[in-house]
Amino acid sequence: MKENIDAFLDAWPSIQEGIVVTLQLTAGGALLAFVLALALGLAARAHNIVIRGSARAFIEFFRGTSLLVQLFWLFYVVPLFGYLIDPVLCGILALGLNYGAYGAEVVRGAINSVPQSQWEAATALDFSHWQRLRRVVFPQAWAEMIPPLTNLLIQLLKGTALASYILLQDLTFEIDQLRQTTGNTLFAFGVGLVIYFVIGYVLTLVMNALEVRAKNRLGTGPSLREIFSLAPSDPRGLEAAKQ
Fold first, then answer.
1. Relative to the CA of 228, which of 14, 45, 139, 187 has its CA 20 to 30 Å away?
2. Which domains are assigned to the chain?
3. For the whole model, what pTM was predicted?
4. What is the pLDDT of residues 153-179, one digit of tens each?
């Protein structure tokens, strides 16, 4: 066991570099996926059949094909046409396109879940379409879409493990190097399991905080301060409930 620990300490600087690559892929892929999800989710609701049809075709194509195959196409096939893509950018593009397609369905469903009465109320206030969407509909839809987007973010994090197939020295690559050094598969991938869990849990906490804030702004949930406060935020309400 001591030899495994010593090997881990020796490999820790390289593992840290792998974590940085994994975080770069996660952040870049998530940002691209979110932008695409918003654009495609809204386009899929458009009245124009060309816009709606194009969005649906894009969504179904990237949802219906393997992330690994998309990664290989960007890294190995596109250069055949004379376009070389940096491996990190290639990973970000593949992750963003794939999970952006899944996220588009989340956005579309969340917007559709907003009651029709909210749209009608905004229309009665003489808001334009984009004003209705930005001021009334999207804030409500945003609170609903955060939980499924959190799941997609964690899936995206785990999807970065495929980056080692395009010669990126990410966390999975460095963990495999540790396995080869120690000869102990259980120890090496146990370390990788813990590191991935910690990163995923931190991302989940951040997304949970966003959800709490979104619901609090709608008046449907407590604030972060109230959640972390040791004292009850509404003592009168608690006393009334006891009575």
1. 139
2. 2-242 (1.10.3720.10)
3. 0.87
4. 999 999 999 988 998 889 999 999 999
